[in-house]
Predict the 3D structure of the following.
Amino acid sequence: MSAPVDGKADLIIRNARLIDGTGGASFMGDIAIRDDRIVALGALGGMSGGSEIDAQGKAVAPGFIDVHTHDDRAVLANPTMKNKVSQGVTTVVTGNCGVSLAPLKIDRRPPAPLDLICDTPEGFYGDFASYLKALDDAPAAVNVLAQVGHSSLRVGAVADLTRAASSSEIKVMRKKLEESLEAGAIGFSTGLFYPPSQAAPTEEVIELGKALHDHAGLHTTHMRDEAAHITDSLAETFRIGREADIPVVISHHKCAGADNHGRSVETLPLIDAAMKQQRIGLDVYPYIASSTMLSPDRMAGASRVLVTWSVPHPEHAGRDLADIAAEMGLSQTEAAGKLLPAGAVYFSMAEEDVQRIMKYPHSMIGSDGLPHDTRPHPRLWGTFPRVLGHYSRDVGLFPLEEAVRKMTGLSATQFGLKDRGTLKVGNYADIVMFDPDTVIDTASFTDPMQAATGIALVIVNGRPVWQEGAVTGARPGRAIRRQQLGTFGKAA
């Protein structure tokens, strides 16, 4: 491929196995970077770089796009983002599951699950422009695409969260949503599974979704039910997308609870059929356990529950609820009540479903990690290397090129990212170099905050943020506004 006229670059990575993010076959070659862009690919023997790295056959791919995160506050509180850059992530999508830091003014501890991302009122922003400005003024190491959360809107506008919003309350929410979209929010997420939004009827979401249509935004959803009523929830999700005429992404698709194991053979064909009529996407994480707020009435169907944090009993973080209950001389449900507010990991999925959904051609990879948990789910640190090492290399679920596509090119297309997600001359230099033979997650449920092995170099907008097993301290990430994006997904 052609090189710059002057034949110079800031950095050249040579002798790399280039995996371009499209799913196409990898090839050996070099990649050159100048400023924040890729300026050349291929055999670049005639070029010189201010610095050069010999990849020695390691893979070089586009930086991974974590399409489902709760990094809203983490990108400000821990801007070097070690838990993400150490696994090759260069862009995060925030504001998922109906939970966002803006737009919301609150004078008390936020209700669950908003407290998963921030447990004090001071951490929230009254308008979305202020949140994005905070990201501009104090950049993180990664790029950020931020959404507005439905639950955050409801907490700020609805007097009684146990009922549907009134017409006047919907108008207030819609105005805040529209202002947020104009400020740069990329879309709107729902968490109809959670208490602040459970009482919201489908029609409420559709009405808010119409604002997305008018402002060309995206809708992501933690559906109302991922267990016994999963097909009803899929139908509701499809209806919202159709009637509001908006693209929809199904968050962390799963079949939860022992009675629902194996039902991905039922759900994926339903998604397939819907994709022929409307813009639908989905993401998945590579584990059989989920993680969210601890709730006594949400433990049914889980074979095991681990406590990730507890306000009244912080000493129990990382422990099995069954052991805690035995010590207390209580049932697990009673013990859970004593720990609240708290968080938990629920072992509730079947490996066959996880693999089937991961292998589905249209599924993207998202971590859904909770960065403020005392003892978080290991997906916060291990998601992307686990897909590369365990599922692609060791299990053989799909080729390495397909694994990379699910983390890069597919995600960029679904979220409308321009000039990112593929290795291409002119694209932003968001790049990860890793060893396909050794890359693997090391974070576990007993020791969850461990960096992966095999990730050699991570570059964001042309600047290294992870190198030689450590963060560099550079923070070149950008808050990417909706106005900078293209079309979400592909038209039906």
The two ends are 34 Å apart (CA to CA). Residues 199 and 238 are 19 Å apart (CA to CA). The longest helix spans residues 167-183. DSSP finds 15 helices and 20 strands in the chain.
